[in-house]
Amino acid sequence: MEALFQLSARELVQRLRAGTVSARAVIEAHLARIDALEPDIQAWAWLDRGQALAAATEADAVRASGATLGPLHGLPVGVKDIIDTADMPTEYGTPIHKGRRPQADATIVERLRSAGAIILGKTVTSEHAVYVAGPTRNPHALDRTPGGSSSGSAAAVAAFMVPVALSTQTNGSTIRPASFCGVVGYKPSLGLLPRTGILKQSSLLDHPGIITRSTADAAFVVEAIGGEDPLDEQSLGLSTAGLVEATSPINGRPRLAFIRSPYWLRTDPTTRAGLEALVESLDGAIDIVDLPPAFDAAADILSMIMAAGIAQTYREDFDKARPLMADVLVRIIEDGQRVSATAFLDAWAARDTLRCLFDQIIAPYDAALTPSAIGVAPLRSDGTGDPIFASLWTLLGVPAISLPLLQGAHGLPLGVQLVSGTRQDRRLLSTAAWLERARPVSAGTQ
């Protein structure tokens, strides 16, 4: 029999709702796993065992009372430390906000709790969620980075410390760590998950995301907590209904494109060979599609928009505590301060043009297959890795998911990214689930 910490999110909730296992037993199993591995991996910025066990005891009492159970009843979840939690610190990975205690839960956390989930703690983030390596190590190789900025979330799920963790992405902070850690990273369409109470970098680019060990688990959780956020100007009232159904095996073979992207030559030879072999193995069921030259500027467009947003958001921290900021963050803020209003509006107009153009290109397909990262996780001493293969899709706001389908250099995991058109999350998840079934893998590290 599998240990409780090895079970998927969906299987855990099924057993919890049926009463074949208690919420307390589930939480104790995951806490024991954390106790065993956390000294090496360092995925958690805050962990409150007593609080988690008390929440589990309450969940068991609710079930015993016969009350209606939430769709995520008893499910342990980790929350990235830029997402507000009223009962735990949210410190943004920086000494500037050491000890910060929010007054309320972020909307996404509130929805998790309302659905019955139990928040185990806060996972480590890079400083201010930018390119600054934190203490977290990759569970597959402790000398390697787990990626950033959702480093703790990806490492915790990969190490079976928790089945689900919240992430965010303004450039590549969900897709890249998922690829490096050999787990599933799902960045839904812009506006599908609520953002109120999450540290803002760029309101035009910030995407909440989720780290799991399967597409089905990602769909399961996002369906329960997604939907309109009245306080978020990017929320479009998108429904999450049908995401779980989309992952069902009854769905037919998807129509796939292979898009190398403008940055294909940045990949290492092992990555290129692995992706080309995967495409070949699909027996001609995939078309090779080249993006027109207009997409070559996507990463520069994103960088300008993101830098301007960071300069605006972190203005107060920059003015009051600049010596406590990492050099890379200081440079981004200074770059953002130099962006004129005209240049910013030009960049956003270019983004809209690219988005419309991509929707035309992807229209005949359910999803496009493309790299998740340039290669496997680099050494921790070399930083958190290059996010370039997520940049285009974050800029466009389209749904994307990284699946741990390949093995790269040094035997380390390597993700494959799927993307779909604007607001086509059901198509994306259906395709991802099909590809998982066609190329089964064992995610995570035990």
Task: Explain the layout of strands and helices.
Elements: H1 9-18, H2 23-41, E1 44-47, H3 49-65, E2 76-80, H4 107-114, E3 118-123, H5 151-158, E4 164-169, H6 175-181, E5 184-187, E6 207-212, H7 215-225, H8 243-246, E7 256-258, H9 269-281, E8 286-288, H10 298-313, H11 315-321, H12 327-337, H13 341-362, E9 367-371, H14 388-396, E10 400-407, E11 413-419, H15 425-438
Parallel strand pairs: 2-3, 2-4, 7-8, 7-9
Antiparallel strand pairs: 1-3, 4-6, 5-6, 5-10, 9-11, 10-11
InterPro entries: Amidase (IPR000120), Amidase_dom (IPR023631), AS_sf (IPR036928)
Organism: Kaistia dalseonensis
Protein name: Asp-tRNA(Asn)/Glu-tRNA(Gln) amidotransferase A subunit family amidase
Describe this protein's structure.
This protein has helices at about 10-20, 25-40, 50-65, 105-115, 150-160, 175-180, 215-225, 245, 270-280, 300-315, 315-320, 325-335, 340-360, 390-395, 425-440, and strands spanning about 45, 75-80, 120-125, 165-170, 185, 205-210, 255-260, 285-290, 365-370, 400-405, 415-420. It has about 450 residues and is α/β, with parallel strands linked by helices. The protein has a single domain, classed as Amidase signature (AS) enzymes (Alpha-Beta Complex). An eleven-stranded mixed β-sheet has the order 1-3-2-4-6-5-10-11-9-7-8, with helices on both faces. α10 (about 300-315) packs across α12 (about 325-335) and α10 (about 300-315) packs across α14 (about 390-395). The two termini are about 15 Å apart.
N-to-C span? 15 Å
Q: Give the biggest beta sheet.
A: 11 strands, mixed
Average pLDDT for all residues: 96
Q: What percent of residues are in strands?
A: 5-15%
